[in-house]
Amino acid sequence: MNRLTLIALISVALTAAAATAAEPDGGLSPDQVRSLLQSVRLDAPTRAAMNAVTNNDIKDLVLNREITATSDDVFSFSLPTKGITDQENTGRCWLFAGMNMLRQGVVKRYKLEDFELSQSYMAFWDRLEKSNVFLEFIIETRTRDLMDREVDHMLDEPVDDGGYWGYVVGLVEKYGVLPKKFMGETKSSSNTERMDIVFQSLLRRDASVLRELTAQGQPVEALRAEKMKMLQDVMRLLVINYGEPPGEFLWRVTSDSGVVTETHTYTPQQFYHEVIATDLADYVSLADFPVHPYQQHYSIRLTKAMADRPDIDFVNVDVKRMKEIALAALLDSQRVWFGCDMGFDVSGKKGLMVKGLVDYESLFGVPLGMTKTQRLNYRHSSSNHAMVLVGVDMVDGKPHRWRVENSWGDERGDKGFFTMSDDWFDEYVLNVIVPRKYVPKDLLAVLRQPPTELPVWDPAWQQLRW
Fold first, then answer.
1. Of 114, 208, 197, which Cα lies nearest the Cα of 157?
2. If you average pLDDT over residues 157-166, what whole number do you get?
3. What is the tens place of the pLDDT at every residue in 38-69?
4. Is the pLDDT of residue 144 over 60?
5. Is 191 a catalytic residue?
6. Which of 71, 74, 72, 77 is closest to 327 using CA atoms?
7. 3-state SS class at 48
8. Percent of the chain, pLDDT > 70?
9. Could you tell me the end-to-end alpha-carbon distance of the chain, in angstroms, rounded to an integer?
């Protein structure tokens, strides 16, 4: 059956349908449907596109060969970085990026070939703290309607493995850090989907119990006592999935020249203060969020991951200025944690983040372009991945491209490192974390002002969370 015959048959069917059904307001009439179908002309380019798309992976078809063939992985400035980490099938990029910020100082100080901090140790405590935050929220909102927008938001995903820089700070300051060999990956920690289902089932069940106790007239003190029993169940799940975190450990290392250090006993907190020796509280969160005024301090409600810490906050600045601050820190040998949208113009296999790398418009012949503001406002863009800036290629005094330490293993890109073009930074990087000393005085003054609180459904939270 050829296409013209098919259209004719569809026209007959539509005419018959029109005779038996009234056209609803805003609905598509048979004539309109017929017109839409006839508007697609199967000329040679359209037929070629159809044949290509129906028989191939779309991403392979839209990759710009001119860019991939001329990519360059040489950088005029690059921090020595040993070893690439792999977050595997999890949303822990924020934790991996945070630990990657800290571990290279140990590599340099002890002249090691490689060194990793335990991401599982941090994820263990992150889930406990998030579970407590969720149950505390349920107690706080115990008399609200279940259809309340905030209650609905929290019930939608009681706990997951996404996060932000502020979560790293809170966890490290409270629980310290641990070399990876003392708490390595498990099947659950490296592939969290099934574990998430169990955690969410438990916490939603607990939420229903707390609200039923409220309906029975139980006071807050009784609800909190019940919460502690519930957290025992959470701890049981954690230990079974991750193993039990050590309270202290013996640590020594062998340098790249074969020198063995003395053995010391550390708690994770001591290891952070004595070996890592980095003040994470000194770092500042900057974000380019063009749907809100710049030069303003914002916080986002219901984004805390620990009940005794504040919600996430940031100073909103134009991306050009944010980039200047990140560049100053990097050129002074400071690694820069950043969040970006990896949904556009990215080749994970080749390790490229280059504007114009992926061209769906030419393949499909339809307009898809949106500004950064439009993408954020209409929920088409979010900061869905965190990585670390470790190098930059300067041309005529300006950044041309950036070297990125990723956490997707060493089989992608340049042995795990990615190359980001400077215009990709402008378009898709959404926030950076830098030491306070690189932030100009006017922005520090903004940071000292009480933050304007945004609701959790504001696009900013989609911008900042993984």
1. 197
2. 93
3. 999 999 999 999 999 999 999 889 998 888 87
4. yes
5. no
6. 77
7. helix
8. 94
9. 49
Torsion of CA 255, 258, 409, 242, to 10 degrees: -70
Q: What are phi and psi of 391, to 5 degrees?
A: -170, 165
Residue type, 322: M
**CATH code for the part of the protein at 77-464:** 3.90.70.10
* Side chain identity at residue 210, one-letter code: L
Mean pLDDT of 316-320: 97
pLDDT category at 16 given cuts 50, 70, 90 is: low
Contact (Cβ atoms closer than 8 angstroms) between residue 101 and residue 335: yes
- The token duo for 347 is 């080749």
- Residue of 93, 100, 316, 384 marked active site: 93
Q: By the 8 A CB rule, do 183 and 119 touch?
A: no
**Dihedral sign for Cα atoms in the order 119, 120, 121, 126:** positive
Model confidence pTM above 0.85: yes
Selected catalytic residue, list 64, 385, 400, 431: 385
Phi-psi region of 408 (alpha: psi -120 to 50; beta: other; left: phi over 0): alpha
What values do phi and psi take at 271, rounded to 5?
A: -65, -40
DSSP string computed for 249-262: EEE--B-TTSPBPP
| Residue ranges covered by each domain of the chain | 77-464
User: Catalytic residue at 406?
Assistant: yes
Tokens 């219901």 sit at which residue?
302
Q: Kindly report the number of other CB atoms within 10 A of residue 396's CB atom.
A: 5
* Axis crossing angle, helix 165-175 with helix 93-109, rounded to the nearest 10: 60
Mean pLDDT, the chain, rounded, equals: 92
Specify the pLDDT at position 259. Answer: 86
Q: 3-state class of 124 per DSSP?
A: helix
What tokens appear for 73 in the block?
């992985």
Tell me which of 132, 316, 406, 431 is the catalytic residue. 406
Task: Give tens-digit pLDDT for 233-264.
Answer: 999 999 999 999 999 999 998 888 888 889 99
